[in-house]
TrEMBL record:
This is 2-oxoglutarate dehydrogenase, mitochondrial. It is found in: Mitochondrion matrix. PANTHER family: 2-OXOGLUTARATE DEHYDROGENASE, OXOGLUTARATE DEHYDROGENASE (SUCCINYL-TRANSFERRING). Its cofactor is Mg(2+); thiamine diphosphate.
Length: 1025
């Protein structure tokens, strides 16, 4: 036999074991795996003397132990030692005496064994361990049989000295405190049966990878499931359910293929077993307490999952295929742009096999593979918060991946890395990789450097079950096991469904251009359904009649649904989930509400957020900040940015809203301005004043959390979180605004266009520190221009601006603001919640304004008292534009220039104006750039009828607000006959490739020049000379 190619010269020594009753003290030299939190892998520790009755072993002479375990010298040495020990236990070193006594003491419980030497036992243990570690390398995973893998040598029994002569000898394995093969309660078996069961368990159609997991209990749990005494068997009833589900999956694709021959559907052919696998996984999860499942998945098989797993009505899916998606009873209402059918999301309740009910939500996603992953996880976490699912066992996330994208897309790793973080953990995600061994046209050898496409998950200690998708029962088993793992250990698990793609990347592609050999095999390869059918018939448990019945039933339902789809009329838009009932769609007017807060509430929460327990000892500097805050509240003056923000959070929380702020270093604040979590300098204890606003406040009601160093993953997570329930202010803050482009897909594909494509709202707030302080190209710009360029308001049309009829924000895809006062920041955050719709908010957040003497507000600007500075005609609200602060009247004919600007440059302009004692220049701040405040801009244009109109910005001309503002300002001016594009004067930096200079002196010069120019006595030269 091949596996005996390495013979052993080790002599066979028969030991007649003496029964040793005494087990105590026999574990002195056992290996223990440290608990996972130490993150050590297989560290060996010795028990202390106190813990064990056995003597501490003394060192053995090095010369004798430097021999490798398997070479003859050490084996013979061991055997000699053993013989000597048997003759006289005192003749060997105390440590060896101890060792032999332990070993014989264990093995002696199996009187039937004869001739098992210590070396053989040890080698057998190594062999079993080799199967546990590397058995998957020999597993038959590829349904096409094309896979060429070298079988690791350590799976060869001959390597351990076993020969054919040993096959029918009996061996006892249970010497270690282990489960499965090595558990102590296993019977004595012949080597032949041990090997055959090892092969069945580890080298069949499931390859288990779990030995990278450091936690011994978890490994033992898996061994118990994998190394069962006999192979798993499903009864005939269960088999019929599996067969039925596989039939649905297969026929669904066939049906679409025959009805819509040229339509792209990214079919599941070759991976049909995904559907029964998912269903069985869901059933098992429901049995174990799961009530809600959030699903994220790419194009491949999505329609099949929608129809057969989520149970979206088939007639609706067919109707969408025929192009009829617009609800007829809602003509004229907002439908957005829509999206292709294999991107749409949905949610349904489905009954399970065990008689329970599961709520399933499939999250809409763009083409960008894997981008939806963190969104799903964030949504799952939010569901856990809102359902008080503290153990995280009722709400679960499932992610389906492709093999190419799982290995290739970095967001996968970013998402996996959120899995165990306290404020991002969801109690485990089940990942299924539809591994069809090709990515579009790219072979795995060109697409990844790792052996398996799933190797990335090993970094997170997730078990990975590779399964041959042609063995449907193995698929079901792996999927059930994954569900059990998740509910037991509350951590991620991966099922790698090794399958193939029967057709091209989509139905119109020709796969043989690039994979000729593979497709030659595929053409004659039977489907999973045919294979299973054959197996069932052969088992005799099922008759042809049973099979025909199921086939006929499925086919007739598909046909009935198809007929019904012809007259299918969508009743209502699948608009908003239940939490969102009553929220307005863009065509419904939402009354503008005030955001001022009663003065006594402001005082009360103000006090609560600026104090900490008496015996708490924060850092001196932080203590000072808190004392200053308390003073600001007391005096009602000089409220700075940090306190303004904390007041917004606190007032929202006391009104019953959930507030969550996450991002890198947000707890302290990158610029050391927030200090939302205090650290006792002696005990290290933490205290977050915003957690103590109301009696028995849920500790998560206000959440501030430093995140992992990820933009794409964390922003996606917060987006998903924000979409679950509208009564939450969810904020992601970038460290510096420019880092946001690491999450560009989130902005382009989800945040700016999600509502238009998928009719899903979010009130997510994104804080992007922005401003030119001379910190170089990478820390100056939040790339305001990009967000403005993605805004969808028409630059040439002034929408209805009457306050009672205005829907401008509702109709726009998002809001972009650059706010300049703490009070206005307070109101813009509160406005996110105090309205009947939700819209993303992009904030160019300040840096040096955080400590700027002028950038402060009085408490009276936060309250709702008539006559106070924040209170205008309607009440206290966010100011989209802040007019000149010089006390100008409604008509100022003597003003020669109106400078419009946004952000911190205002303070520099104002300072220069004071310094130069300029009286005839007005400076207005455009606080909300998008949607453009036409009404307020026109009000200012009218106020200064003779003024030259200037847009001043600190960004280069090809960046900042200029391009966006100029078009809309021009539209506003034209409507008032105040000139055209060339009448808008530009003051700012010249066009530039980099956002800013790296030379500080140059920065200062540029900044001074532009500020001076905005106030220069001479008219400013037009942009177009
Ligand atoms: C981020 C991203 N890059 C590229 C593509 C284009 N694309 C669509 S499908 C595909 C292949 C995906 O391969 P795999 O993940 O193995 O899934 P499969 O189609 O094989 O199921 C590619 C490259 C994409 N959709 N998203
Ligand atoms: Mg693939």
């Amino acid at each position: 036999m091949v596996w005996f190619r390495i013979g052993s010269s080790v002599a066979k020594l028969a030991i007649r074991r003496t029964l040793s009753q005494s087990r105590c003290g026999s574990y002195a030299t056992r290996t223990r795996v440290l608990p996972c939190q130490t993150r050590c892998f297989h560290s060996t520790i010795l028990k202390s003397k106190a813990e064990s009755a056995a003597p501490v072993p003394r060192p053995v002479p090095l010369s004798k132990l430097t021999d490798s375990f398997l070479d003859g010298t050490s084996s013979v040495y061991l055997e000699e030692l053993q013989r000597a020990w048997e003759a006289d236990p005192n003749s060997v070193d105390e440590s060896w005496d101890n060792f032999f006594r332990n070993f014989v003491g264990q093995a002696s419980t199996s009187p039937g064994i004869s001739g098992q030497t210590i070396q053989e036992s040890m080698r057998l243990l190594l062999l079993v361990r080799a199967y546990q570690v590397n058995g998957h390398m020999k597993a038959k995973l590829d349904p096409l049989g094309l896979e060429k893998r070298e079988i690791p040598e350590d799976l060869t029994p001959g390597l351990y000295g076993f020969t054919e002569a040993d096959l029918d000898r009996e061996f006892f394995l249970g010497v270690w405190r282990m489960s499965g093969f090595l558990s102590e309660n296993r019977p004595v078996q012949t080597l032949r049966s041990i090997l055959s069961r090892l092969e069945q368990a580890y080298c069949g159609t499931i390859g288990y990878e779990y030995m990278h997991i450091a936690d011994r209990d978890k490994c033992n749990w898996l061994r118990d499931k994998i190394e069962t005494p006999t192979p798993r068997q499903y009864n005939s009833e269960r088999r019929m359910v599996i067969y039925d589900r596989l039939t649905w999956s297969t026929q669904f694709e066939n049906f679409l293929a025959t009805k819509w021959t040229t339509a792209k559907r990214f079919g599941l052919e070759g991976a049909e077993s995904l559907i029964p696998g998912m269903k069985e996984m869901f059933d098992r999860s429901a049995d174990l307490g799961v009530e809600n499942i959030v699903i994220g998945m790419p194009h491949r098989g999505r329609l099949n999952v929608l129809g057969n797993v989520v149970r979206k009505p088939l007639r609706q899916i067919f109707s969408e295929f025929s192009g009829g998606t617009r609800p007829v009873d809602e003509v004229g209402l907002y439908t957005g742009t829509g999206d292709v059918k294999y991107h749409l999301g949905t949610s349904y309740d489905r009954p399970t096999r065990g008689g329970k009910h599961l709520h399933l939500s499939l999250v809409a996603n763009p083409s960008h593979l894997e981008a939806v992953d963190p969104v799903v996880i964030g949504k799952t976490r939010a569901k856990q918060y809102y359902t008080k699912d503290e153990n995280r066992t009722k709400n679960m996330g499932i992610l389906i991946h492709g093999d190419g994208s799982f290995a290739g897309q970095g967001v996968v790793y970013e998402t996996l890395h959120l899995s165990a973080l306290p404020n991002y953990c969801t109690g485990g995600t089940v990942h299924i990789v539809v591994n069809n061994q090709v990515a579009f046209t790219t072979d795995p050898r060109e697409g990844r450097s790792s052996q398996y496409c799933t190797d990335v998950a090993k970094a997170l200690s997730a078990p990975i079950f590779h399964v041959n998708a042609d063995d449907i029962e193995a698929v079901v088993h792996a999927c059930e096991l994954a569900a059990e793992w998740r509910q037991t250990f509350h951590s991620d698990v991966v099922v790698d469904l090794v399958c193939y793609r029967r057709f091209g990347h989509n139905e119109i592609d020709e796969p043989s251009f690039t994979q000729p050999k593979m497709y030659k095999v595929i053409r004659s390869h039977p489907s999973s359904l045919q294979i299973y059918q054959e197996k069932l018939l052969q088992s005799g448990q099922v008759t042809q009649e049973d099979i025909d019945k199921i086939q006929k039933k499925v086919s007739s339902i598909l046909n009935e649904e198809y007929e019904a789809s012809k007259d299918y009329i969508p009743q209502k838009r699948d608009w908003l989930a239940s939490h969102w009932t009553g929220f307005k769609s863009p065509e419904q007017i939402s009354r503008i509400r005030n955001t001022g807060v009663k003065p006594e509430i402001l005082k009360n929460v103000g006090k609560a957020i600026s104090t900490f327990p008496e015996n708490f000892k924060p850092h001196r500097g932080v203590k000072r900040v808190y004392e200053q805050r308390a003073q600001m509240i007391e005096s009602g003056e000089g409220i700075d940015w940090g306190l303004g923000e904390a007041l917004a959070f606190a007032t929202l929380v006391v009104e019953g809203n959930h507030v969550r702020l996450s991002g890198q270093d947000v707890e302290r604040g990158t610029f050391s301005h927030r200090h939302s979590v205090l650290h006792d300098q002696e005990t290290g204890e933490e205290y977050c004043p915003l957690d103590h606003l109301i009696k028995n406040q849920d500790p998560e009601m206000f959440t501030v959390s430093n995140s992992s160093l990820s933009e794409f993953g964390v922003l996606g997570f917060e987006l998903g979180y924000s979409m679950e329930n509208p009564n939450s202010l969810v904020i992601w803050e970038a460290q510096f605004g420019d880092f946001a482009n690491g999450a560009q897909v989130m902005f382009d594909q989800f945040i700016s266009s999600g509502e238009a494509k998928w009719l899903r709202q979010t009130g997510l707030v994104v804080l992007l520190p922005h401003g030119y302080d001379g910190q170089g190209p990478e820390h100056s710009s939040g790339r305001l221009e990009r967000f403005l360029q993605m805004s969808d308001d028409n630059p040439y049309v002034i929408p209805e601006m009457d306050p009672t009829l205005r829907k401008q924000i509702q109709e726009c895809n998002w809001q972009v603001v650059n706010v300049t006062t703490p009070a206005n920041y307070f109101h813009v955050l509160r406005r996110q919640i105090h309205r009947d719709f939700r819209k993303p908010l992009i904030v160019m957040a300040p840096k040096n304004l955080l400590r700027h003497k002028q950038c402060v507000s009085n408490l009276s600007e936060f309250d709702d008292v008539k006559g106070h500075p924040g209170f205008d005609k309607q009440g206290t609200r966010f100011k989209r534009l802040i007019k000149d602060q010089s006390g100008h009247s409604d008509l100022e004919e003597g003003i020669r220039r109106l400078v419009l600007c946004s952000g911190k440059v205002y303070y520099e302009l104002d300072e220069e104006r004071k310094k130069s004692e300029t009286k005839d220049v007005a400076i207005c701040r455009v606080e909300q750039l998008c949607p453009f405040p036409y009404d307020l801009i026109q009000r200012e244009l009218k106020r200064y009828p003779n003024a030259e109109i200037v847009w001043c910005q600190e960004e280069p001309m090809n960046m900042g607000g200029y391009q966006y503002i100029a078009l809309r300002l021009c539209t506003a001016m034209k409507a008032l006959q105040r000139g055209n594009f060339n009448d808008i004067k530009y003051v700012g930096r010249l066009p530039s490739a980099a956002t800013a200079t790296g030379f500080y002196q140059l920065h200062v010069k540029e900044q001074t020049d532009l500020v001076k120019k905005a106030l220069q006595p001479d008219p400013i030269t037009p942009v177009i000379p």
